[in-house]
From TrEMBL:
Pathway assignment: Polyol metabolism; (R,R)-butane-2,3-diol biosynthesis; (R,R)-butane-2,3-diol from pyruvate: step 2/3
Similarity comment: Belongs to the alpha-acetolactate decarboxylase family.
Ranges in coiled-coil conformation: none
Superkingdom of origin: Bacteria
PANTHER family found in the cross-reference section: ALPHA-ACETOLACTATE DECARBOXYLASE (PTHR35524)
Organism: Mycolicibacterium komossense
Protein name (Swiss-Prot/TrEMBL): Alpha-acetolactate decarboxylase
Length: 269
């Protein structure tokens, strides 16, 4: 074999290798979306309200999510990479990067399914329509519902003082608010039943109006028109506190599902 022939053969081999690598790169699916969660809902039920992570750290893991704040001071909405603090008086303000959370879940939101809604649709009917579009109920799904609402009924937990009561007692004095003919967004997750206690099984949704000034944990709603977007996730990164009350918390109460239902206002299905 001459030097010229060897060079030609090597060049063809190299071109073939590069072409194969390019094809493999172009056809590889993007990495699966991951839900990043701080602590567990069972810890929150047991009164573990001290912040385990800052909002700045949390936002490194996603641009969409929900949770609560240090000392159980209100509800959290993360929408389009911005974190909002929803307080017991129904108002909402931007959260600080140094604020802390004892429980939150975030993800990079990439819509896999979209459903256009026209005509008054109740909460129960809308959730059934979303369920019918899911590939599997055994995966986690981020749920974004944006539009005009005939009504939204919310509640917001109040900041607690030590010694902290369990969540079912803390939410017994929750502040409720009602919004009529309002535009805004519901932000949350649909979580598989087998994750009950780690998260809230079923639907868990928080509301933020389009002015980003009011909202809360959604108890009920009627959507007049809007768009539902669903982002599927198959990975869960669970970040557990390694110090403080979490280490002594009872995370496996016999009536866990009943406690979650009471604390969530009976809306987690």
């Amino acid at each position: 074999m001459t030097r010229s022939e060897a060079h030609t053969r090597f060049r063809r081999w190299a071109e073939s290798l590069i072409a194969h690598h390019r094809t493999a790169t172009e056809t590889t699916d993007p990495p699966a979306a991951e839900v990043y969660q701080v602590s567990t809902i069972s810890a929150l039920l047991d009164g573990v309200y001290d912040g385990a992570e800052t909002i700045g750290e949390l936002l490194r893991h996603g641009n969409f999510g929900l949770g609560t704040f240090n000392h159980l001071d209100g509800e959290m909405v993360i929408l389009d990479g911005r974190c909002y603090h929803l307080r017991a008086d129904g108002t909402a303000t931007p959260a600080s990067a140094t604020d802390r959370t004892p429980f939150a879940a975030v993800m990079p939101f990439r819509p896999d399914v979209e459903i256009a809604i026209e005509g008054a649709t109740t909460r129960a009917d809308l959730l059934r329509r979303i369920d019918a579009k899911l590939v599997s109920a055994n995966l986690v799904h981020g749920i974004r519902i944006e539009g005009r609402f005939a009504s939204v009924r919310t509640r917001t937990v109040m900041a607690q003082s030590k010694p902290y009561p369990p969540l079912t007692e803390a939410t017994a004095g929750q502040a409720e608010a009602s919004f009529e003919q309002v535009t805004g967004t519901l932000v949350g997750f649909r979580t598989p039943d087998f994750e009950q206690g780690i998260s809230v099984a079923g639907y868990h949704l928080h509301f933020l109006d389009s002015a980003f000034t009011h909202g809360g944990h959604a108890l009920d709603f009627v959507l007049d028109s809007g768009l539902v977007a669903v982002s599927q996730a198959s990975d869960l990164h669970l970040h557990l506190p390694t110090t403080g009350p979490f280490l002594q918390a009872n995370l496996a109460a016999a009536d866990l599902s009943e406690q979650i239902d009471r604390s969530e206002g009976g809306t987690h299905s």
